[in-house]
């Protein structure tokens, strides 16, 4: 994932349980999801301009 400015990504299950997070950073990051079971997750990215939430499918 790439974004301008600082951002903080957090990955949640559909039940709302946080499963991955990363400290605020800038540039690009990779969240390691290899240990997570296949399924649908919610990726919440907080930026200086607001919050964006997207569905992520892990096969």
Overall description:
By secondary structure, the protein is mostly beta strands. The chain has one domain. It is 0% helix and 64% strand. It contains no helices and five strands. The chain has strands at 2-13, 18-21, 25-28, 39-47, 50-58. Strands 1, 2, 3, 4 and 5 form a five-stranded antiparallel beta sheet that branches. The radius of gyration is 11 Å and the shape is globular. The mean pLDDT is 88.
How many angstroms does the end-to-end distance come to?
Answer: 18 Å
Radius of gyration: 11 Å
* String of helices and strands: EEEEE
Shape: globular
Q: How is the secondary structure organized here?
A:
Layout: E1 2-13, E2 18-21, E3 25-28, E4 39-47, E5 50-58
Antiparallel strand pairs: 1-2, 1-3, 1-4, 4-5
How would you sum up this structure in a few lines?
The chain is mostly beta strands and 59 residues long. It has one domain (2-58). It has strands at residues 2-13, 18-21, 25-28, 39-47, 50-58.
């Amino acid at each position: 994932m790439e974004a301008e400015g600082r951002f903080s990504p957090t990955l949640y299950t559909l039940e709302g349980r946080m499963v991955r997070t990363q400290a605020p950073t800038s540039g690009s990051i990779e969240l390691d999801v290899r240990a997570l079971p296949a399924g649908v997750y919610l990726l919440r990215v907080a930026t200086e301009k607001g919050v964006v939430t997207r569905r992520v499918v892990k096969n």
